[in-house]
Amino acid sequence: MKKILAVEDSKVSQAHLLDILEGTYEVRVEENGTSALSAVMEMPPDLILLDVNLPGMNGYDVCRQLKGDVRTREIPIIFLTGCDSGGEKVKGFEAGADDYIVKPFYPEELLARVTLHLASRREKQMAVELERLKLLREMAVAISHEFNNPLTAILWHLRLASKGLGEGNEETRTHLSDMQFELDKIRRIVARLAEASRDAKTEYVMGEAMIDVNRI
Q1: Which of 22, 13, 32 is nearest to 81 (CA)?
Q2: Is the omega angle on the peptide bond into residue 107 within 30 degrees of 0, that is, cis?
Q3: Which of 210, 183, 215, 191 has the alpha carbon at shortest distance from 143?
Q4: Reduced to 3 states, what is the DSSP secondary structure of residue 198?
Q5: For labelling alongside 10, which of 17, 35, 93, 144 has CA 20 to 30 A away?
Q6: Which of 60, 107, 51, 111 is nearest to 81 (CA)?
Q7: What CA–CA distance (Å, rounded) separates 24 from 36?
Q8: Whole-angstrom Cα distance, residue 5 to residue 213?
Q9: pLDDT category of residue 91 using cuts at 50, 70 and 90
Q10: Is the pTM of this model over 0.90?
């Protein structure tokens, strides 16, 4: 269940938010900016609903701090405010907010915006993960090529050395055979890495495919 942090000092608004969101999301409520910042660091939420007019530190300052921290800047923040002026909205977006909802709002509107921003964040996370997996695939193929040539050469020389042994060298022949066996295992691992992009793909998002590292 996705976690939402609602930062709202009004008991009535708190109850309204809980009534709309609870059951669909795990909701935590904080009443001021300082406790909200602590809550985010303690257990980062998937989305923050942030009232602008808070006691002490206002919503703009909270937003700026969160968006300025690499640990929390990707968390979507939706401002909640009773002010519908263009200047206030601009101020909110300049602070780093992802969206702006004017109170009073319809439950359907709140749910729709929350769903939208959670989906958008998930897509961004998946895109980052896809890039990491592409890099892993490229590294696997590069490593396999780098290892394959020297491994092949070593195995070839081991076979030549084994064939060149005369009678009475059974212990050495056994050691060479064991080395060849272990090197063959390494070569099979390298071959599996080289084939990873073809044989270890699984469906991802938007028609993309990724490497399933559990199958390598």
Answers
A1: 13
A2: no
A3: 191
A4: helix
A5: 93
A6: 51
A7: 21
A8: 34
A9: confident
A10: no
Hey, what are 89's tokens? Answer: 């909205």
**Hunting for tokens 């028609």 — which residue is that?**
207
Structure tokens at 127: 């895109």
Residues 70-80: tens digit of each pLDDT: 999 999 999 99
Place 167 in a pLDDT band, splitting at 50, 70 and 90.
Answer: low
Query: Terminal CA-to-CA distance of the chain, rounded, Å?
Result: 31
Distance between CA atoms of 59 and 91, rounded to whole angstroms? 11
Structure tokens that stand for 34 in this block: 């300082």
Residue 169, CA distances (Å) to 163, 176, 202 in order: 11, 11, 50
By the 10 Å C-beta count (0-12 exposed, 13-18 middle, 19+ buried), 21 is classed as buried
What amino acid occupies position 11?
K
